[in-house]
Specification:
The chain is mostly helical. 76% of the residues lie in helices and 0% in strands.
Length: 282
């Protein structure tokens, strides 16, 4: 091979190796670039998280209408209320536990009313007579009347609970609730008191105060009790209606959790009347 041919061959070889070297250079630099990127990634990811967490500005702010406050939690009778401390627990107890409140108030009120009347008469306390009022207050006024007023009356008058929990301004506009108010007053005075309340009272009285020598047979006891009631039926009911017709209009219009406590407040005066009329009778 001549020298000129060798030079030509070497120059061609150099020219052909130059592109190959230029292709291999990026391949050699790739691992170093990946290493640099990997070392910077935590900082880049931290920056991206900060950008994502920044609040975005809205071009147009649309306001939503505020919602009305929800109804008080509870079953319509007992109310779930927040309280703190012993005093708060005592003050909210009638709202949270109306049934227990009714039993406590009915028992204490009925017994106390009879004791006040007996003391006013200036005689020695007749504990058997007081036992009649205490037992009647617990069993009938405390337990049975809850069923009558809260369960039976609210079924006969379906608008009663809703009406009682309205404001006074709303009550004046509620025709259906006003009709139920009159129905409850009628049922209470001319059905409940006349045909249930007084017969049960005379039965308790006969059971506790009657002479032990008399027959304790249930039928005979009921006949004696109803016989005494029949003799006093007109006077007893006239006294009852004169107090309780206006009283019931107030009782059935108040919030239902307050119904029986208010009922017992008026009943304190009535029980004194009843004790004076029938408590001392043999």
């Amino acid at each position: 091979v001549t020298r000129s041919e060798g030079l030509a061959h070497g120059g061609a070889k150099a020219r052909t190796s130059a592109p190959a070297a230029s292709l291999r250079a990026p391949e050699a630099a790739l691992p170093a670039a990946m290493l640099r990127f990997a070392t910077r990634w935590p900082r880049l990811s931290a920056c991206s998280r900060q950008l994502l967490q920044q609040p975005r500005r809205r071009g147009c702010q649309i306001s939503r209408p505020s919602r009305a406050a929800g109804a008080p939690k509870g079953d319509g009778i007992a109310v779930e209320v927040e309280y703190s401390g012993l005093w708060g627990q005592i003050v909210t107890f009638p709202k949270r536990r109306p049934f227990a409140t009714n039993i406590i108030v009915a028992t204490v009120k009925t017994s106390l009313a009879d004791l006040v009347v007996q003391k006013a008469d200036g005689k020695e306390i007749d504990w058997k007579r007081n036992g009649v009022f205490t037992a009647f207050g617990f069993a009938y006024l405390g337990v049975a009347q809850w069923f009558i007023y809260v369960t039976v009356f609210t079924r006969l008058c379906p608008h009663a609970i809703r009406f009682s929990n309205l404001s006074w301004a709303e009550k004046l506009k509620d025709r259906a609730g006003q009709i139920d108010l009159l129905k409850q007053t009628f049922y209470d005075n001319f059905v409940h008191y006349t045909f249930v309340y007084f017969p049960v009272f005379y039965t308790f009285k006969e059971l506790i105060q009657s002479d032990n020598s008399k027959s304790s047979n249930t039928g005979a006891l009921a006949n004696r009790a109803l016989g005494k009631y029949w003799k006093n039926i007109v006077q007893d009911n006239l006294y009852m209606w004169s107090l309780w017709v206006p009283g019931d209009l107030l009782v059935y219009a108040c919030p239902i959790w307050m119904r029986l406590p208010l009922n017992h407040g008026i009943s304190l005066a009535w029980t004194m009347i009843l004790s004076r009329l029938r408590g001392g009778e043999s």
